[in-house]
DNA sequence: ACTAAATGTGTAATCGGTTACAGATTGAGG
DNA sequence: CCTCAATCTGTAACCGATTACACATTTAGT
């Protein structure tokens, strides 16, 4: 690796001058600048970020904490983060924390060992942000006064409820996601508020997990528990799919006999037959805007909103009448 | 942040002694060790990796280059990498390179600026590995003599071909993935070898991309191009799904009229109705073993196989007769 | 022409670790 | 009791950058 010292030597100036040229800081004479630029080009020099970040006590890296990369929602979010970061000269460090507070702590410690300049967290943990590092919450707006980007899940729930009402759902099953996921509660309460206002008749089906492997079994249980219903508001697309599969297996027609609405809009939701009507969450945008907010925080720019809520959107396909 | 200097001071020894205690290197007296450990505990000290890596010219970070995180195959792979890394004290830096050689170069440069100790790449680019950093290829075993972990795609293709033959495919369409993806070629040639050996009649349908948004359109084109066929070997699960959807839309029954086999085994493949029979790729394992190989390379342990090929597996569900 | 401000440059300290080297102490063997 | 090796420990150099400070040289203003 070529160092600043070698550049200085080649250019016939001191390392300070090279550094000033690199960072456009302080005064640098015309001729010196030319010689330094020449040397940099000839030697193919680029600065060592480790040395830089040792002195600055901060590197151009941001940490991204995810509860589960294999859940299809998060890769999209990660892509948004990565795109913004990359465009602004930051690197993303990935941490898969699996709803495990210890793992989360471990990562936060790791991060600080590497002088990471900020953290983006979609993980559940309520960190007491005693470390001075900028922290932005993704998709988990807690009550406290921290920065966050999230989807308006209550609105999403309302949208789903409205869509079902508009397509004349009479006998509705509302699947409630796990209680400990705050977004799931908001969706439920949003949906119920609309249903209640319209005086519709519905029943709530509790599911205790978002785990994919349990989806099929849960769908079976739903059909076994409730005899007759004509509409299902699923807690997410994976469950919607499982319900759809079970419905078709049991010879119901979709949407004629049973209509279904999902939540998330995963890529396969439109590849189903019939296409799944669902509430799209702007996962990519959550990631992108989260990264933007974090970088602004790091670079101490003004931030208008501490808490940004993005709007979900109804995607009409064929699983509603 | 508490530094080694403060620890030394508190313990009443020199920084060298603290460092020796931390790294179990050189001689450290019993009493000194005790005092240092005490001080570390009291002060809550943990070493700054940036400083360490500046001197060592290598950090405990590995770079992971992915062509597209939003493609559902890669998150699983990433999880495998992340799990192994985390268990062995390494951090993972994510780079989404999108089949873009410039972006890949940019990342490799980024990585070297951060003294990254190794790179795991699932990206297409054939890097002239002139940098001395350990490099392991994931799922892209090139001819050259570099390290790699990949799936035996030829075998996967054969498995698919055999499965179709066993379920009495008469008139087979084989979808060829993009030519520039080496794995896609291997699958194709594997499938064809089996089909040829059996003297089966088939036609090859070329697709030029693995992009998800093009899947539906491609499936329509397939049906428009070929009048009659009873079996499809799809280039991956997304395409298999799109073909299934189009088939159902056109009132074909699956698997009675048309049977379909996919490739990858994505999570939604079993949530379809009918469940998609497919060739499962051990994505998680590719990631995990790749990380293992890389870490062994970094730590200069002996490596038995430079090129590891993992076996794909047939997952029987309901889309074959 | 004379002073003050603006500009240009190099030396050395600093960031927080690791380690070569030297000097001190202890212990074993003769 | 002496010698030599083994064991401990501290000082200082080093990793590759940034920057405070001192000093030199221009430039501007009167």
Automatic annotation (TrEMBL), chains A, B:
Domain HTH lacI-type: 2-56
Record-level Gene Ontology MF annotations: DNA-binding transcription factor activity; transcription cis-regulatory region binding
Identification of the protein by name: Transcriptional regulator, LacI family
Assigned keywords, A-Z: DNA-binding, Repressor, Transcription, Transcription regulation
InterPro entries found in the cross-reference section: HTH_LacI, LacI/GalR-like_sensor, Lambda_DNA-bd_dom_sf, Peripla_BP_I
Organism, as annotated: Alkalibacterium pelagium
DNA damage is among the record's keywords: no
């Amino acid at each position: 690796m070529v160092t600043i010292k070698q550049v200085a030597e080649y250019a016939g100036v001191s390392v300070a001058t090279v550094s000033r040229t690199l960072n456009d800081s302080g005064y640098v004479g015309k001729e010196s600048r030319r010689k330094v630029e020449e040397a940099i080009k000839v030697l193919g020099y680029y600065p060592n970020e480790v040395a830089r970040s040792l002195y600055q006590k901060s590197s151009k890296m941001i940490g991204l904490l995810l509860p589960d990369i294999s859940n299809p929602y998060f890769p999209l979010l990660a892509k948004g983060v990565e795109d913004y970061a990359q465009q602004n000269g930051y690197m993303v460090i990935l941490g898969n924390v699996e709803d495990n507070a210890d793992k989360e702590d471990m990562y936060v410690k790791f991060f600080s060992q590497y002088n990471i300049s900020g953290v983006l967290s979609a993980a559940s943990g309520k960190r007491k942000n005693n470390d001075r590092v900028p922290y932005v919450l993704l998709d988990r707006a807690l009550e406290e006064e921290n920065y966050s980007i999230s989807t308006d899940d209550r609105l999403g729930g309302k949208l789903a409820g409205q869509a079902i009402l508009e397509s004349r759902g009479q006998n509705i099953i509302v699947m409630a996601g796990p209680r400990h996921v705050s977004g799931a509660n908001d969706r439920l309460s949003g949906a119920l508020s609309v249903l209640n206002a319209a005086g519709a008749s519905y029943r709530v089906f509790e599911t205790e997990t978002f785990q994919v492997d349990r989806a099929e079994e849960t769908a079976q249980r739903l059909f076994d528990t409730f005899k007759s219903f004509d509409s299902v508001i699923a807690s997410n697309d994976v469950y919607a799919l499982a319900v759809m599969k079970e419905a078709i297996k049991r010879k119901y027609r979709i949407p004629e006999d049973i209509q279904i609405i999902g939540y998330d809009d995963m890529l396969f939701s439109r590849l189903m037959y019939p296409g799944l009507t669902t509430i799209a969450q702007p996962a990519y945008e959550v990631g992108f805007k989260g990264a933007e907010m974090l970088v602004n925080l790091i670079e101490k720019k003004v931030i208008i909103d501490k808490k940004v809520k993005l709007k979900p959107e109804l995607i009409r396909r064929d699983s509603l009448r």
